[in-house]
Amino acid sequence: MADVNRGNRPLSPHLSIYRPQLTSITSILTRITGNALIVSALMIVWWFLAAATGEEYFAFANGFVTSWFGDLVLGLSVWGLWYHTLAGIRHLIWDNAMGLEIEAATKLGWACVIGSVVLTVLTIAIV
Amino acid sequence: MRYMTDRKRAAGLGSAKSGVHHFWAMKVSSVALLLLIPLFVFTFGPALGGSYDEVTAYFARPFPAIVAALTMIVGFKHFNDGAQVLIEDYVHGGTQKITLILVTCLSYAAMATGLFSIAKLAL
């Protein structure tokens, strides 16, 4: 009885027939931003290592990090960082079994999307 | 297998096989990062773009150096724990174990490199 149909049953979330919603998109974005931040994290570690190594190597690493490509990576990372931060706050709220109703979850999703853009613009303006 | 019940098969196999330890570790590091990330962004950000002398003098000061060091420790631990969940969801079998080991090595190597560099700049 207990061994019926193991390993041969449909698995959620049936991505091929799943209609994208704000809640599902903001959920997967949390994972994507969090893991993608490793790129800029490693770049920043390299920048610190270069600064600790010497003037010549720092000029090379700093030149890369502050180039248009470095600026692009860091600019996107600032957005990813604020998005992941706001989405993290959303998870901390959800952990208390609060804000889980569809309407509240949608509002929190918009807060993450809009809030992250606002914080990114502010950060780039200030820094 | 004939006499294995669902109850017997599930015993000792929590969702992550280790209770709430991982959940709690993520909770602690995420709350810590809630404070550290704004501090790091607004101390590291202004330093970026400075000359070699400006950067080395800046991170010789205690506050930017301590914030950067703490961000390295908590940030890479949080990355390691988070990437673990990603790997457990999408990679399976032996490849999963190898990937988990490699990501853990990468996290601690990056953490150590960052800490060494900040210590050298600060001292």
Overview of the structural elements:
The complex is a heterodimer of chains A (127) and B (123). Chain A has 5 helices and no strands. Chain A is mainly alpha-helical and 127 residues long. Chain A has a single domain (21-126), classed as Fumarate reductase/succinate dehydrogenase, transmembrane subunit (3 helical TM bundles of succinate and fumarate reductases), CATH 1.20.1300. The longest helix of chain A has 27 residues, at 68-94. Chain A is elongated and about 65 Å long. The mean pLDDT of chain A is 91. Chain B has a single domain (21-122), classed as 3 helical TM bundles of succinate and fumarate reductases. Chain B is built from 5 helices and no strands. In chain B, α2 crosses α4 (62-90) and α4 (62-90) runs antiparallel to α5. Chain B is elongated, with a radius of gyration of 20 Å. The mean pLDDT of chain B is 92. The chains are: A mainly alpha (127), B mainly alpha (123). The A-B interface holds A 2-3, 31, 34-35, 37-38, 41-42, 44-45, 47-49, 51-52, 55, 58-59, 62, 65-66, 74, 78, 81, 85, 88-89, 91-92, 95, 123, 126-127 and B 1-2, 4-6, 9, 27, 30-31, 33-34, 37, 41-42, 44-46, 48-49, 52, 55-56, 59, 68, 72, 75-76, 79, 82-83, 86, 106, 110, 113-114, 116-118, 120-121.
Q: What structural class do helix, strand and pairing data of chain B support?
A: mainly alpha
Distance between the termini of chain B: 63 Å
Q: Which stretches of chain A of 5+ consecutive residues score pLDDT under 50? A: none
* Largest inter-chain contact set: A-B, 34 and 40 residues
Count of all domains of chain B? 1
The CATH superfamily title of chain A: Fumarate reductase/succinate dehydrogenase, transmembrane subunit
- The name of the CATH architecture of chain A is Up-down Bundle
Average the pLDDT over all residues of chain A and give the rounded result.
91
Indicate the CATH class of chain A: Mainly Alpha
Query: Mind telling me the CATH superfamily name of chain B?
Result: Fumarate reductase/succinate dehydrogenase, transmembrane subunit
Number of DSSP helical runs of chain B: 5
Order of helices and strands of chain A: HHHHH
Radius of gyration of chain A: 20 Å
Q: Helix fraction of chain B?
A: over 70%
Largest sheet of chain A: none
Overall pLDDT confidence of chain B: 92
Give unreliable regions of chain B as ranges: none
Can you identify the CATH class of chain B? Answer: Mainly Alpha
Shape annotation of chain B: elongated
